[in-house]
Amino acid sequence: MDKLNKVLEILQREQERVIIAPQIVTENGRKKITWTNESEDECYIYPNDISIAGDKIAWFQSSIRDNHLVRIYEDNFSLSWEPETYNPVFGCYCLLMEWYKDHLIFIYQEKHCIYICSIKDKEINHFHFHGEDIERRDNLISYATYMDNPVDKVRLIQIPELIHVEPISTLEAEKCGLIPQGLNRPGNFLALKP
Question: Which top-rank group of organisms is this from (predicted)?
């Protein structure tokens, strides 16, 4: 069963106070799950915003009225969490939703910042920066801020712990494929490369 159908099954099972039941639709060549809740807000989930690892499943859902929610189902618990955002009307865009070393890594962009979240056992830790240049290789994420970037250096953070790592030279970052780049790239570009 594919990711969309697994999430659809959960949504249909939990179907509480909805006006239009969850369904998979294709819009502009992209599949998504969509439903209308009791507040007449159309909610949706895209395949890249879903992560499944064994019995663990998580997704990021948004709505036409800019309500954003991360939902996690793991072992015997579930968690719903509203991501922090300066201005939800601007939007909240999922850049990565991935289970990594028993943590859910959720990276998203909002109006002024990119947030890197590490979630395990209902504990949510996050780091954010003002900028939109980011890259990932294995457990390292490089990033550049709008201001105060070190000269000829690239900043790093290690996941899932969200530990700041000593900046590396731009030359070393280039060799490692860790030069931070803009967000105008295909979906799921931060996913772990095999």
Answer: Bacteria
